[in-house]
Known about the structure:
The chain is an alpha/beta fold. It contains 13 helices and twelve strands. Strand 2, helix 4 (about 100-110) and strand 3 (about 120) form a beta-alpha-beta unit.
Amino acid sequence: MSGFTTLAVHAGQEPDRLTGAVIPPIYQTSTFVQDGINVLRDGHEYSRGSNPTRNGFEQQLCALEKGASGFAFASGIAAEDALLRAVLRPGDHVVLGADGYGGTNRLVSRVLAPWQVQHTAVDVTDLDAVRGAATARTRLVWVETPTNPLLGIADLAGLAELAHEYGALLVVDNTFASPYLQRPLEFGADAAVHSTTKYVGGHSDVLGGAVVVADREWHVEAVNGFSPGSTLAELVAFQQFAAGAVAGPQDTYLAARGLKTLALRMERHQHNAGQIAQWLTQRPEVSQVFYPGLPDHPGHELAARQMDGFGGMISFRLRAGEAAARRFAESTQMYKLSVSLGGVESLICWPSQMTHGCVAGTENAVPTDLVRLSVGIEDVEDHLEDLELAFTS
Ligand SMILES: *Cc1c(COP(=O)(O)O)cnc(C)c1O
């Protein structure tokens, strides 16, 4: 039992021992009865610390990411926050992707900055730029690949080597690729993070996040004589329990259910996306298509080596500029105008004032003539018809 889809269906999802229910129950409980003081049945005491539904999902995702431990949170941002605070201390520095999820940039630059955490945002597809940004205080190199929204490809093995040279950890936000297409820990990354809201959940019906860590020693400075652990897993587990942004049982049930079909969904997402990207390159209205599956994409060969497919996200620029891009994003019918991504239904957005509105006007701003598609699993003919209509409306 080691195939990806076999693990997706079975890891952490064993039938209920008591009743034989094939699908593990949703343990909708805050606390667990003790058989004597501190005598715990099955190790569960209180659902912030552990809950069987959450733990099952954590094991399932961890098996797919080939990690040592997984931790589920209430949102992707909550997962990121826990990992950042597990590792960073005042005075530390983070190298961050410039072309990345706007909320990650906001978390580091606005929530952590008052705690004396510094950061530099760079083009993570350029190893020299990352090296140029790293300092003796760099504790984390935090990247997305493919990047958002320009779908650049970062060299994970190269980045892991570089980060470790500086005594830093490499963290990869694997939300866009999903573990079906890319497993960062296999390239030497120390942790993968997810917004499980996206492809993992896959149905746009739940928020969630996760951290999956490799089995590494990692020492942080003790604070007031207290050191919360010596492995990355212990440090993240401590944050999850002590700061408490855990995912609830209903939410982790939905995420676990979605994750079982990840492989099937991703195959269809990327089958559609490949055809649509190719079609877009033929459109006179389009000046540039960003999709790593296109042979002239600058990261195409790296993506082909490092990923098992090219994913379901496409961005493209409209020749006629900002107004045309806005109009296009507001003109599709099947593609719903919306932030977020990774659900079975297709979504369209205008990143410069939607997903990336919080970096508008900064050096990390995204082009205003850019449109981003989260290509759903609907029939490809319907995609092309919808996009065609939006071009001519
Ligand atoms: C959505 C997203 C996040 C944030 O996750 P939430 O679940 O919305 O908190 C982080 N990284 C990436 C790449 C995302 O797409």
